[in-house]
Amino acid sequence: MTAPSGRRERKKAATRQKIADTALRLFLERGYDAVGIREVAAEADVAVTTLFSHFASKEALVFEQDEDFEQRLTQAVTGRAPHELLIPALRSEVQALVRHCTADSVAPIWRMIDESPALRKYEESMRLRHAETLATAIAADPELSRTATASRTIARFVIDAYSLAREAAEPQAAVDEIFGMIEAAWEATRPSRRT
């Protein structure tokens, strides 16, 4: 996420991070379902209303980098250099995200997510939202000139690529394999040029 510039913004960001770190520590120590919102707030030394001003739900505490992930994918589309190809830009971003999410230090978090129906459901809704946001960014780029359906399809493929690669035995090889298919699908959606 972009570093907050003003003192107030820095303080808000620090409070948010403290809440998220506290929640994650408690969830990993005692189990996601065994820890309540009030306990997280008390341990982080904030009011419950303060916690909810930073996080919309208990599940959001686990996925505290959700917005950053979504912004990074959108930025891969909107922040491309002129004439930079879309699929390699998205591949590069997904590779970086997969590297981050497959680090050994993150494995206990994914185990916790996999064991919790509430967290799996939240992750699925988050992925659908990310796909829609990404599709909107792709469709809005006049240089790409694809239909809304093609934009939505490719966006879903990209989001699924992240999830599938994260779970693969060789995540980076999986990203390459999946993006080979995404590249082919993207080329298949190219508008035909009639002479």
TrEMBL record:
Pfam families reported in the protein's UniProt record: TetR_N (PF00440)
InterPro entries attached to this UniProt entry: Homeodomain-like_sf, HTH-type_TetR-like_transc_reg, HTH_TetR
HTH tetR-type domain span: 13-73
DNA-binding region, residues: 36-55
GO MF annotation terms: DNA-binding transcription factor activity; transcription cis-regulatory region binding
Keywords: DNA-binding, Transcription, Transcription regulation
PROSITE patterns: HTH_TETR_2
KW Transcription regulation (keyword) present: yes
Ribonucleoprotein as UniProt keyword: no
PANTHER family, per database record: HTH-TYPE TRANSCRIPTIONAL REGULATOR BETI, HTH-TYPE TRANSCRIPTIONAL REGULATOR RUTR
Protein name according to UniProt: AcrR family transcriptional regulator
Organism per entry: Nocardiopsis sinuspersici
